[in-house]
Amino acid sequence: MNLLKGKIAIVTGAGSGFGAQIANRYIENGAKVIIADINLEAATKVAAELGENAVAVRCDVTSSTEVAGAVKRCIEVFGAPDIVVNNAGYAYTTRPLLEVDEETFDRTFNVNVKSIYYMTQAVVPLMKERKSGVILNIGSTAGIRPRPGTVWYNASKGAVNLLSKAMAVELAADGIRVNAICPVIGATAMLENFLGAPDTPENRAKFIATIPLGRLSEPDDVAQVALFLASDNAEFLTGLELPVDGGRTI
Is-contact 146 212, C-beta < 8 A? Predict the structure, then answer.
């Protein structure tokens, strides 16, 4: 239970879902964590549940100022981050590609892709100084095996998956590891958007039928992988595009 003892982490979108559980597993394993979320109330609740090693920070990941502010707050309360998990994400309701307006397209790429650019600008110089660091980007199976109705979302997650590999190559000489975790659809707040229909047992069953292991992803499926990849047990792993998908992308 001490895989991350003494480590400092920032997790975006940590007010709920995958992010909250990643933060939980990190703290269980000895880390101190900044719970960054656009919903400060949700982030504060998670931080209160996790104890003194968790601090909530409001962070709109589409704002370079707020991302830099979250990193500054991390340095103030804990120190420079050893680990960053770019988990915050956005998905629009499934619809034909021509029905996605420009505002929705821009929000999809700003939250899912440009946010990683902002975080990289804020944390990589700190990691380069110490010649160590871990960056985990939450991609998606949508960027590996795309589905109709989510074309621009698929494209944004394809960008996350690929940029993670490119970052891994460029930053390896600085001792910085970068990996993409690619979950299949999970029972999160974005589920109905992915389904493109109400979240009913029948509609879930249709999608679950496409997953060989027969269920949706759970937050702890992603959190356990994020824990391993952030730990020294994964010190020789970088540039992965790792599906956490019950066999969906086979």
Answer: no
Active-site position among 26, 92, 118, 153: 153
Query: In whole angstroms, what is the distance from residue 40 CA to residue 144 CA?
Result: 32
Q: How many other CB atoms are there within 10 angstroms of residue 25's CB atom?
A: 23
Query: Residues 154-177: pLDDT tens digits?
Result: 999 999 999 999 999 999 999 999
Structural domains of the chain, ranges and CATH numbers in brackets: 8-242 (3.40.50.720)
Decide which of 209 and 197 is more confident: 209
Residues 6+ apart with CB under 8 A from 55: 32, 33, 34, 35, 47, 73, 77, 78
The stretches of the chain forming alpha helices (DSSP H) are: 17-28, 40-50, 64-77, 102-109, 115-130, 151-171, 191-195, 201-208, 219-230
CB 250 within 8 Å of CB 23: no
Q: What is the pLDDT of residues 168-203, one digit of tens each?
A: 999 999 999 999 999 998 876 677 777 766 778 888
Residue 153 catalytic? yes
Q: What is the pTM of this model?
A: 0.95
